[in-house]
Design a protein that fits this description.
The protein is built from five helices and twelve strands. It is α/β, with parallel strands linked by helices and about 210 residues long. Strand 10 and strand 11 form a beta hairpin. The protein starts with a helix and ends in a 7-residue tail after the last strand.
């Protein structure tokens, strides 16, 4: 039942996201990137894990370029199916170090240095849908579920931040017991700080409250 609910919500939200015009997507993405860059968690990060946006996702390339420009050791994921996980590799040049990977998503080339998840001090998360309590609906591959489980065991204090368009925020995301909540969600309109067991705080400005 939960799997069916997830599939239905995934199809609906993706259709809405795909309907955004290129101009609208670019404008909203820029506002989201600005909000992320203003976060204290991002500002202080030295080894952030970002992701290369694909299709109608929030455009993360301005964020990647800005992080490289200020000297952060930017890490991007590469999908591995044997074993099924994300390989984390450092990227020094977004023009040279990336190539199309699984499903055409840009990911680090083999020559890029692999980074242990324990070295990360900031993680940017993609997703299809989110709710205000931190529920996250992914694409169904389970790769980020694997990563979040790793981080939960090795480095539970690492800041986890999801980016999404406001249209991706839904009343309730159907979740399984293994689904981990996202503490911070950034949209073009607000920053949502999600507290487990408490009513979340939604801030309209660049900052947010714990």
């Amino acid at each position: 039942m939960i799997a069916e609910s997830k599939s239905s919500m995934r199809a609906h939200v993706l259709a809405c996201r795909d309907a955004l015009s290129d101009a609208e997507r670019a404008r909203k993405s820029r506002r989201i990137a600005d909000r992320v860059m203003a976060l204290p968690e991002f500002h202080s990060a030295q080894v952030p894990l970002l992701f290369a946006s694909f299709g109608s996702e929030v455009d993360t390339w301005p964020l990647i370029r800005a992080a490289l420009q200020v000297g952060k050791r930017v890490v991007l994921p590469a999908v591995s199916n044997s074993p099924r996980c994300l390989r984390l590799r450092r990227v020094d040049d977004s023009e040279v170090d990336l190539q199309p990977g699984v499903w055409g998503i840009m990911e680090p080339r083999e020559h890029c240095v692999e980074v242990a998840s324990s070295e990360l001090d900031f993680v940017l998360l993609p997703g299809v849908a989110f709710d205000a309590r931190g529920g996250r609906l992914g694409y169904g591959g389970g790769y980020y579920d694997w990563l979040l489980a790793q981080l939960g065991a090795q480095k539970p204090s690492v800041p986890l931040v999801a980016v999404a368009f406001e249209l991706q925020i839904v009343p309730v995301v159907p979740t399984d017991t293994h689904d981990l909540p996202v503490p911070i969600i950034v949209t073009e309109e607000r920053i949502i700080t999600c507290c487990a067991g408490e009513k979340p705080v939604a801030a309209s400005g660049a900052g947010h409250e714990p």
